[in-house]
């Protein structure tokens, strides 16, 4: 996404030059969830590099539509689910369920020749997720107990005290507001928000 000072810029793609120069070494792209900031540049990358894409069913469903818009219907999409393990070159990647503001998100436990890399990705500590599937905390604990070389953890709102409300609480708040509204209700929402 563009920075605040980048007026009239709709989107920004990362610099793919390193990936293009090393495309023979790339064995696949692993997607962790369907939010635009994690999938938006994919069509532009796939125009340069033909590699399989791994992701959960919802994530791949969202990506599939995006790829159609770019005439990339023939991209190789490989569905995975939590607890699956995929081997890509020297890496073994385990998919670990996380709770987030979009369902079907996964973190990654990556075995490398140098040790374990744990990537929590975007997650939300939500004890009452909308669809009832809890984050696999025990798996992240297990990685820590066995020894982790690197932890990559997103930290949105980490600088704020307290906690973030469960998606169920957000839904209840909307229900309350909507039931009291008199007249038309107009809602703007994130394109991948499927909870509501």
TrEMBL record:
<protein>
    <submittedName>
        <fullName>Ribonuclease J</fullName>
    </submittedName>
</protein>
<keyword id="KW-0269">Exonuclease</keyword>
<dbReference type="Pfam" id="PF00753">
    <property type="entry name" value="Lactamase_B"/>
</dbReference>
<feature type="domain" description="Metallo-beta-lactamase">
    <location>
        <begin position="14"/>
        <end position="174"/>
    </location>
</feature>
<dbReference type="InterPro" id="IPR036866">
    <property type="entry name" value="RibonucZ/Hydroxyglut_hydro"/>
</dbReference>
<keyword id="KW-0694">RNA-binding</keyword>
<dbReference type="InterPro" id="IPR042173">
    <property type="entry name" value="RNase_J_2"/>
</dbReference>
<dbReference type="GO" id="GO:0004527">
    <property type="term" value="F:exonuclease activity"/>
</dbReference>
<keyword id="KW-0540">Nuclease</keyword>
<keyword id="KW-0378">Hydrolase</keyword>
<dbReference type="InterPro" id="IPR001279">
    <property type="entry name" value="Metallo-B-lactamas"/>
</dbReference>
<dbReference type="GO" id="GO:0003723">
    <property type="term" value="F:RNA binding"/>
</dbReference>
């Amino acid at each position: 996404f563009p920075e605040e000072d980048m007026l009239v810029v709709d989107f920004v793609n990362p610099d793919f030059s390193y990936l293009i120069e090393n495309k023979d070494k790339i064995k696949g792209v692993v997607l962790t969830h369907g939010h635009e900031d994690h999938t938006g540049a994919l069509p532009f990358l796939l125009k340069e590099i033909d590699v399989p894409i791994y992701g959960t069913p919802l994530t791949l469903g969202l990506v599939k539509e995006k790829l159609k818009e770019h005439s990339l219907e023939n991209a190789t999409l490989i569905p995975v689910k939590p607890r699956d393990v995929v081997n890509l070159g020297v890496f073994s990647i385990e998919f670990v369920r996380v709770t987030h503001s979009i369902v079907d998100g996964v973190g990654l436990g990556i075995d490398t020749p140098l040790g374990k890399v744990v990537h929590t990705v975007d997650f939300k500590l939500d004890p009452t997720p909308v669809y009832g599937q809890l984050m696999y905390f025990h798996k992240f604990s297990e990685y820590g107990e066995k020894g982790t070389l690197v932890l990559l953890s997103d930290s949105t709102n980490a600088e704020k005290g307290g906690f973030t409300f469960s998606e169920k609480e957000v839904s209840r708040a909307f229900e309350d507001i909507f039931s009291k509204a008199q007249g038309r209700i107009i809602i703007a929402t994130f394109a991948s928000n499927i909870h509501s």
